[in-house]
Amino acid sequence: MSQFSQKRSMEPPLSECMNSRVDSLDSLSMDNFWLEVENIKQSTETEQEECNLADVKTPEEGEAEAEWLQDAGLSDLIGEDTSDNGNIVLLSTLTKTQAAAVQRRLDTYSRSRRKKNKPPVRDVRDIFGVVNSEEMVVGMEESDKDRSQHSVETSDYTQKHSRGLQDFSCMLRSPGKEEIFCTDIAYSEQAAILLKGSFLRESRRIKDESALTFKIPKGRLGVTRIGDLSPQDMKKIPTLALIELTALCDILGLELKRNKASKQKTKENRLFGVPLSTLLENDQKLIPNTKVPLILQALLSCLEKKGLDTEGILRVSGSQTRIKSLEEKLESDFYTGLFRWDEVRQNDVSGLLKRFIRELPTPLLTAEYLPAFAAVQNIPDLKQRLQALNLLILILPEPNRNTLKALLEFLSKVVAREKKNKMNLWNVSTVIAPNLFMHKGLANKIPEGKEKQLAEGAADVVRMMIHYQDLLWTISSFLVAQVRKLNESSSRRYQFYDRRIKNLLRKIHADKDKVEKNQAEPSKTVKVQTSLLLKDSLEVHLNNGTKAADVLRQFQKHLSQNGWSIVNKVSLIKRNGAVESLNLLLYEVGGNISEHCLDPDTYLLDLYHINPHAEWIIKQNPSFPRML
Question: pLDDT of 243-258, one tens digit each?
Answer without folding.
Answer: 999 999 999 998 887 7
